[in-house]
């Protein structure tokens, strides 16, 4: 069976968009800004009190890994060489806090996000 040649598009740029409700990884052609592939995963949220959202930090991290892996698989199915991804940008939850144990690397508690509500 003949080997399939990968398309040379590039350089490519990846973007991790990690938000409160989901994580996405997108890959663009840097010359045309064309979206070539993406994958999105929803993230579970807990609401322990009004105005607060908590999430499992390990689930957040795993969702990033999954989105990158699935997007790269999709690029492979399109015969696009993932070695042409030359940069990855990250957009994250700027108001969310996670405290990690510096020795074990394990989270000490859920990721906590305080939401501001205004009552008219």
From TrEMBL:
GO biological process: glycerol metabolic process; glycerol-3-phosphate biosynthetic process; triglyceride metabolic process
GO cellular component, one term: mitochondrion
Phylogenetic classification of the source organism: Eukaryota, Metazoa, Chordata, Craniata, Vertebrata
Name recorded for this polypeptide: Glycerol kinase
Family classification: Belongs to the FGGY kinase family.
Keyword Disulfide bond: no
A molecular function GO annotation: glycerol kinase activity
Keywords, ordered alphabetically: Kinase, Transferase
